Amino acid sequence: MKNRGGRLIGGGSSSIGLPIVFFLCLFFFLAGFFGFTLFSQQEESNLRPEPRLLELEEEKEYRKFEPLEHGSTGEGFLTTIPFQVLSWKPRALYFPNFATAHQCEGIIEQAKKRLAPSLLMLRKGETEEQTKGTRTSSGTFISASEDKTGILGAIEDKIAKATMIPRSHGEAFNVLRYEIGQRYLSHYDSFDPAEYGPQKSQRVASFLLYLSDVDEGGETVFPFEDGQNMDPSFDFSKCIGLKVKPRRGDGLLFYSLFTNGTIDKTSLHGSCPVIRGQKWVATKWIRDQVTED
Ligand SMILES: *[C@@H]1O[C@H](CO)[C@@H](O)[C@H](O)[C@H]1NC(C)=O
Q: Where does the secretion signal sit in this chain (predicted)?
């Protein structure tokens, strides 16, 4: 048995047995090495999926589905927009790689030329002096129709699909830049009539498209997520709760209103101070009525 075993490997001759054993060893070493490399690449891509890999995976998953007959306002193809539910209280969704790097750069280029200090909507009886320091970013409004490159139009289309709220309900994009130390204290995007007076229309949802990475700080924060920290003594400058790190091209959608139209108190959010780097973000506020923008 031993001999036969030897023959199987060495072909019966000990003089050619050694090279074969050597090549087998080399083969298994290389197989192991490349196998590991493949595996570790997969690990990495789990953290931040490569768009191409993701597409392939989705293609596989959806190949068995054929598009249905569609209505005259529908589309003849299937589309996938990956998202993660970050929270139900408030309803918040994360969209990795919602926009391309090229799109983000194109938006920043257009906004740079017309930045001005960001403004605040004042409550009844509130003065600008009282709200100093609440919102320290610079920004500008750009509507998709002003953007001759078509980038904002494409983004607006995709946001409309992700929310199923028509483009006509969106305000113009508010493109913001936060430099080191700049922030936006936690606030609501919706306007409580008790504080702001009667409203002709209300902000239902907000879509934030991060246009840059930020080295440190600049997270979007939801301090009241799942009812946490909701005591009257809460310090609105605190960056505690659910935090979303800005990364170029990623989107964040959250709803400020419940489906019955009342304000979701857990939708309070802010922008933590930038500690290192610079934060660029394009915000689209979506209303319950058609807007003029
Ligand atoms: C609206 O909906 C929320 C969430 O379901 C609920 O907590 C609240 O009581 C409702 N308010 C009214 C006025 O119906």
A: none
